[in-house]
Amino acid sequence: MSKMKLDSIDRKLLEMLQVDAERQVADLAEEVGLSATQCWRRVQRLKDGGVITRQVAMVNREKVNVAVTVFVAVRTNTHTEQWFNRFRATVESIPEVVEFYRMSGDVDYLLRVVVPDIAAYDKVYKRLIAGTQLFDVSSSFAMEELKFTTALPLSYLP
Fold first, then answer.
1. What distance in Å separates the CA atoms of residue 99 and residue 142, rounded to the nearest whole number?
2. DSSP state at residue 14
3. Distance between CA atoms of 31 and 38, rounded to whole angstroms?
4. Are 6 and 49 contacting, i.e. CB atoms less than 8 angstroms apart?
5. pLDDT (tens digit, 9 = 90+) per residue, 61-102?
6. Which strand (E) or helix (H) includes residue 25?
7. Burial class (CB in 10 A: 0-12, 13-18, 19+), 44
8. pTM metric for this prediction
9. Which helix (H) or strand (E) element contains residue 45?
10. How far apart are CA 45 and CA 48, in angstroms?
11. How far is CA 18 from CA 11, 21, 59, 115, 144, in A?
12. Reduced to 3 states, what is the DSSP secondary structure of residue 17?
């Protein structure tokens, strides 16, 4: 798939939509200097081109009682496709795991888990280790969230 060419208006629209995806097209159009119809077409082009992949509601973690963030580093001695498929299925079945990455370096996988407390994390941990054979699991509890954003930097666009 070739990269979609984005101009300064597309970038501005993306910046605004990353902050508030519920903004009215007329409001967006006024800010970027387009008619509402032209602006709507641009936003649709960004969606159709896969630049905007989805729009979601951001939920306050404290209000839904999952304010504790745990980063879980996993190391394994097994690197087969069968092992990975089982591990991935285990991780994907645990709703408290909100991010899951395969890593380079000393850690094989990194997970971000959200829970209400340490006891809830212990239940997640037990589900994680019951699902697959792991060499080492190391958990770090976030003491304070210093920065959190879902907005991606747009300065790297060609």
1. 15
2. H
3. 13
4. no
5. 999 999 999 999 999 999 999 999 999 999 999 999 999 999
6. helix 25-32
7. exposed
8. 0.89
9. helix 36-48
10. 5
11. 11, 6, 15, 26, 24
12. helix
Rg (CA), the chain: 20
Asked if 126 and 137 touch (Cβ cutoff 8 Å), the reply is no
Chain segment 124-142, per-residue pLDDT in tens: 999 999 988 999 999 999 9
Complete DSSP assignment for 86-154: HHHHHHHT-TTEEEEEE-SSS-SEEEEEEESSHHHHHHHHHHHHHHS--SEEEEEE-S-------PPP-
AA letter at 69: T
Does residue 90 contact residue 132 with C-beta atoms inside 8 Å?
Answer: yes
Q: Which of 48, 2, 1, 6 is nearest to 158 (CA)?
A: 6
Torsion of CA 70, 82, 102, 143, to 10 degrees: 10
